[in-house]
Amino acid sequence: MSTPARRRLMRDFKRLQEDPPAGVSGAPTDNNIMLWNAVIFGPHDTPFEDGTFKLTIEFTEEYPNKPPTVRFVSKMFHPNVYADGSICLDILQNRWSPTYDVSAILTSIQSLLHDPNPNSPANNEAAQLYRENRREYEKKVAAIVQESWNDDEDDDDVDNDENA
Amino acid sequence: MDSEDEMNYDEEEEDSQEEDSNDEDFVDIAMEPEPSTASDSRETEDFQYEVLTADKIVHVMVECIKEVNAVVQIPATITRILLNHFRWDKEKLMERYYDGDQDSLFSEAHVVSPYRKDPRQKRSTRGSTSASTSESMCEICCLVIPHTDMAGLECGHKFCFQCWTDYLTSKIINEGMGQTISCAAYGCDILVDDVTVMDLIKDAKVRLKYQHLITNSFVECNRLLRWCPAPDCGHVIKVKHYDVKPVRCTCGHTFCFACGENWHDPVKCIWLKRWIKKCDDDSETSNWIAANTKECPKCHVIIEKDGGCNHMVCKNQNCKADFCWVCLGPWEPHGSSWYNCNKFDEDEAKKARDSQEKSRCQLQRYLFYCNRYMNHMQSLKFENKLYQAVKLKMEEMQQHSMSWIEVQFLKVAVDVLCSCRQTLMYTYVFAFYLSKNNQSIIFEDNQKDLEHATEQLSEYLERDITSELLVDIKQKVQDKYRYCESRRKVLLDHVHEGYERDTWDYQDGL
User: Region (Disordered) spans which residues (chain B) (predicted)?
Assistant: First the structure.
């Protein structure tokens, strides 16, 4: 079944493969093009460096007129990410434009890791530490970077189990 | 709006496209209506106002745009966006237009300055790129589309018709945006003008919603206009100057122009607003709680007494305090000799009782005024039935050798009854916020007098009217309603005089 949203998502996928932006990757799930898995690698020179953060992106048939729902699956400690992993980012809400695509969304989230906005905090603790105690903030972030690797191992384990 | 409007819009579009090619100063108004006859000038005393139908509003809007355009000479679509930016304040727009930096004015209003580019390339929404046959990719659907099937604003971002239509439809229908839809490109804040929207949207439902949103924003921003608040009434009242006055719509609804509520003389808009809020919210529920419950003196959980024993044991598992319901002091010293509760006069207990007494008193006061207010409101609703009864009676009387003109007094009497009830209803709101002074005593006397007379009139009309002595009752009813009307006037004049001389004191914090 091809709808404008699905057609556009195919294009997004193709574009992402042909011209992959640095430090992000994403692909539709096996049997549902409306649901994507993505990974953002923590940007260099930030406390998030070397982290591998997984996300899900959920589209509706109204895409690209409506933004998708993007959510961190990996544990996150960031001023603009809620406890459930959902992200407070203007381009995913009121500043959404239909010219945005998946690669633009992922690179925007990547730059959000680089540049948090502590003035609209989704995670109060993170915002406060970011402002007042940068060392403690970096310590907490380092912990979730570690955890993001464990996620991989867990998944690998699961895969191995399944293979066995 | 009906199908005629639709047709009319379409005609206009064609006109505007023809004019496109040769005329810089054309007035490309997408929403010009037929001249409507359905406006209605009214006047009460010295307060002048007009009732406008939906398409007449569009006409007023177009007039406003034309008036500005006659001076500033830019495309009407831009004028409309500028006017909306200044909340339809023509003077303010003119002032900025000629005083300051025009470029910053245009960018502030999110339009591309009409002076900035070649007039040949204006309004290239459709068919204007006939020379070029090339194709390019639409940034939204990522399909390669011929240029002839793409559209864009002056900002230069072009998308295919289908994507534009989907984008605009989603903004209009889902987000209820009209005047404030911007270009679909990321970060581009140039606003989509009404001609472009009308060109691109073909679905009648969406067009209608868009037109409604546009007129709505026009009416809402304009101090001299107000929608009739009656359900499903699409009329607008236009006044010569803003004032707190009653206006009557063609649908029959009478309301206060300043606040949109039913006409509420003698109480002022702000007090009525507070009253309605008070009635709607649960502030009195909390008063009830204060009057009928107590707080545990230790853990402050709220307790309702459900048995006769005054020895209270707090059921909060973390508290379990023993205390006396009457004095709220600890239970221990009471022991078995409770009936001689020696803790009664202790300061703390007294304070608790005082505050409880106060909220109980406030609740009583509110209920007193609210009951009377509600009662008149309820009666007012019943008077509709009375109109029916009276109509039958009037027909019956006409068969008993009375002429049509001779029985009209009955209808007048019900009219008077209704206006008295309405006035009385709002006098209780006024009184609720009023502090006692000499004037307020006079006011209460006036109120009592009007209340009394109104009830008598009501009784005549509801009961005595069924008796056979019609001539007798005519005299009685006429005397009574004249008296009521004069008392009503006296009461209102007295309140207004008080406003002028500033003799009313208000109770704050209610």
Answer: 1-44
